[in-house]
């Protein structure tokens, strides 16, 4: 298969699926992983797509969320590292913690099961089910459930969150801009995240380093309002972080 034909197939596939893994593109084009990675590097330089860890993301769907089942498989090791670090350093026995809907915050649950008398409040359907399976006292916020991320949003959810106080909130983000703005594609989900942060004694944003420098439609907070917990930074990222950002680098 010619390079141009292969890259055309890749572009079409990525735009239709919004986010995909390298292994999927290998199967699609019947080529090796090294060939696909070279294609992705070239295509990113040409502005056709964006490379992410383990795959590629469409640049044509700026304001849309990526489906939950795909996001769970991306950067999985980094998410576990971040989640473990957050629990071990910021959760104490007896805490009431809000766990935001998201794939990094979801990974906190097995580690929270090791903390005595902890209670989880969440707007994430998968997080609530996982928490119950681990025998943790769990409250699932009510409201409208998003089809793609399975996050509970809307006025009902906001009202319930604003009636509670949390020892800590652990929040996900789709992007951290250079000015420190924390962003997500959906304004309704942004409103819920903002409420989670406001009602917490301490607020933490958990995100892998691929989100640093990214920008989405809705702003829900600034890094001055939270502590950001991320995995090991890439070369140059320390210089690109907003001035004054409180950063915990998970090990």
UniProtKB/TrEMBL annotation:
Protein name from the UniProt record: DeoR family transcriptional regulator
Entries under Gene3D superfamilies matching the protein: 3.40.50.1360, Winged helix-like DNA-binding domain superfamily/Winged helix DNA-binding domain (1.10.10.10)
Keywords assigned: DNA-binding, Transcription, Transcription regulation
One MF annotation (Gene Ontology) recorded for this entry: DNA binding
Domain HTH deoR-type, residue spans: 3-58
Domain of life: Bacteria
UniProt entry tagged with the keyword DNA-binding: yes
Pfam family, one: DeoRC
InterPro entries: Carb_Metab_HTH_regulators, DeoR-like_C, DeoR_HTH, NagB/RpiA_transferase-like, Tscrpt_reg_HTH_DeoR_CS, WH-like_DNA-bd_sf, WH_DNA-bd_sf
Organism: Lactobacillus crispatus
Keyword DNA-binding recorded: yes
């Amino acid at each position: 298969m010619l390079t141009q034909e292969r890259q055309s197939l890749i572009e079409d596939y990525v735009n239709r699926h919004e986010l995909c893994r390298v292994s999927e593109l290998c199967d699609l084009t019947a080529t090796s992983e090294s060939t696909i990675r070279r294609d992705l590097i070239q295509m990113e330089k040409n502005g056709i797509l964006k490379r992410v860890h383990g795959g590629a993301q469409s640049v044509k769907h700026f304001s849309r969320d990526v489906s939950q089942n795909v996001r769970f498989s991306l950067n999985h090791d980094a998410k576990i590292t971040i989640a473990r670090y957050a629990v071990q350093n910021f959760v104490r026995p007896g805490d009431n913690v809000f766990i935001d809907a998201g794939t990094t915050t979801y990974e906190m649950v097995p580690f929270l099961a090791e903390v005595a008398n902890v209670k989880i409040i969440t707007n994430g359907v998968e997080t609530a089910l996982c928490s119950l399976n681990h025998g943790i006292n769990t409250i699932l916020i009510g409201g409208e459930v998003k089809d793609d991320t399975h996050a509970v949003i809307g006025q009902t959810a906001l009202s319930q969150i604003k009636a509670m106080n949390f020892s800590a909130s652990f929040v996900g983000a789709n992007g951290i801009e250079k000015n420190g703005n924390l962003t997500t594609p959906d304004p309704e989900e942004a409103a819920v995240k903002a409420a989670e942060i406001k009602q917490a004694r301490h607020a933490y944003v958990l995100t892998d380093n691929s989100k640093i420098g990214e920008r989405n439609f809705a702003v829900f907070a600034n890094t001055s309002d939270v502590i950001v917990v991320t995995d090991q930074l890439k070369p140059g990222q320390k210089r690109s972080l907003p001035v004054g950002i409180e950063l915990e680098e998970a090990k």
